[in-house]
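INTERNAL AUDIT FORM
Audit reference: QA-55
Scope: verify that the stored structure record matches its stored sequence.
Auditor: D.O.
Record contents follow.
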Amino acid sequence: MALVILHRPLDEGGALPGPLVWRTCLREVVFVDDDANPDADAERLVEGDAYRRLLEILCGLQSPLLGETQVMGQFKTFLGTLGPDAAWLSRLGQRLLADARDVRTEHLSGLGSRSYGSAIRRDLTDCAHAALIGTGKLANEVLPFLADDHRSVDHWGRAREADTSGLKSAAYRTLDEVATTPICGLPTALIVAAPAQSGVIEQVAGRYSSLRRVIDLRAEAGGRPIAVSAPVVSLQDLFARVRAADTSSAAKIEAARADIVSRSHQYALRDELRPFGWDDLCA
């Protein structure tokens, strides 16, 4: 079965249709039949080109935060949702994950700070308290970093069963009960790791009388800028900071890309190798 995908950034229109759709916070990938009509707004990639794009995504080379690891977890979650009818995609996914792990180990393991939690660490040094909005995977990736240096943490979300990753210092608070009375007078950083509306973020920010900064990790702005008195560090600011420190990593990135090209070529040739098949008989 030929590998054919449709690929498009999430900000370029509505959701692509199809039963086999993998979506991240930045993109969506649809696995389609070879004879499917391509979406006019999506990039169509076939076989080796499709495998290369998927492998680059899994290695974090298509992410603004080059080399980030969260996307691999998102792909594993997607594979876990597949039914028996998509067994071929499950097998392909395991091959992709194995190749991605090898590329990361060989070329990207010493790349440095490549997680959202480690990327925001410098914004927390002058804060004795942190407040986190969100209960999803990104929030729980960031949460352990917030408790560094004995920092106390408030965890805001809508679900009472939010996973606080075992952090005893994380006090869970529900967004449905936002009030106006101050919570904490300690220097505080507010981290937004969920698609919350700006008004909700402002309500939470108003609970902290010594708010030092807001770190906004939302892929989209949420309708309008956040109106708070403290400085706001946007996701784009974070990416720009990381890119500025990426000059020393250029050789590793290029080596990883070359390795990915080689592995994609091997994938594209897989159906041409027929040990003891009819090609051998005609040799």
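Auditor finding: record pair retrieved intact. Strands lie at 4-9, 21-23, 27-32, 43-46, 129-133, 152-157, 170-174, 188-192, 211-216, 232-234.
Action required: none
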